[in-house]
Amino acid sequence: SQQGEEDPQALSIQEGENATMNCSYKTSINNLQWYRQNSGRGLVHLILIRSNEREKHSGRLRVTLDTSKKSSSLLITASRATDTASYFCATDKGWDNQGGKLIFGQGTELSVKP
Amino acid sequence: DVKVTQSSRYLVKRTGEKVFLECVQDMDHENMFWYRQDPGLGLRLIYFSYDVKMKEKGDIPEGYSVSREKKERFSLILESASTNQTSMYLCASRGGTYNEQFFGPGTRLTVL
Fold first, then answer.
1. pLDDT in tens, A79-95
2. Chain B residues touching chain A at CB-CB below 8 Å
3. Is the pLDDT reported for residue A71 higher than 80?
4. Contact residues, chain A, for B106 at CB < 8 Å
């Protein structure tokens, strides 16, 4: 089963509103990465947050990490129609007997209506 | 900027053909990955490599093989393509101080 689980599965908002997506995971991690994927395209790396960080910003993106709750959230402020995409979280447990694979969630489909 | 490139955006092949998907990264990363992505199934890891000439099976290696002769290049091979291998194939490269993973643009493979 997937380590990361995004919530909600789908989100529809109006342009200018904020969008919040959540990610929960099951085991301890070294870091957590967020990605965006436009339809039919590859995944674009948005931001990485380390396990000893609680919050990180990049432009209109704000990511939080709560290791006690094993959860992370991605906030997109002042959304634009071009933010319409699927968003994935991926957890990194570090190099272990599984070879340090990232574990991906199923993603949140964000639709921003103009 | 990290760049991961894949040889084709779209590819159409016939059942039984041998298919090569090429991936090149320019960040001197040691770790490279091949995934496939299908609706409802998410991203699934096929193979990965943590060094030249090294390879490890992922979650769904059956029907695939890989080659890593040079650090920057990781190839996925479908020895005899089948219709159930129609999918989006994504290559990724990973490294740097915090082990960030970057993806290529993807190859949409259709096997007829």
1. 999 999 999 999 987 66
2. 2, 4, 6, 31, 33, 42-43, 45, 48, 50, 56, 58, 88, 90, 92, 94, 98-106, 108
3. yes
4. 40-42
Q: Using a pLDDT cut of 70, give the percent of chain A over it.
A: 90
Q: Assess whether pLDDT exceeds 70 at residue A48.
A: yes
DSSP A39: T
Of B33, B99, B105, nearest to A92 by CB-CB distance is: B99
A102-104 and A71-76 beta bridge pairing:
unpaired
Residue A86 in contact with partner chain B when CB distance is under 8 A? no
Distance CA A114, CA A85 (A): 14
Q: Which chain B residue has the Cα nearest residue A97?
A: B56
As a whole-number percent, the residues of chain B with pLDDT over 70 amount to: 98
**Contact partners, residue B96, CB within 8 Å, separation at least 6:** B27, B29
Check CB contact under 8 Å for B103 and A45.
Answer: yes
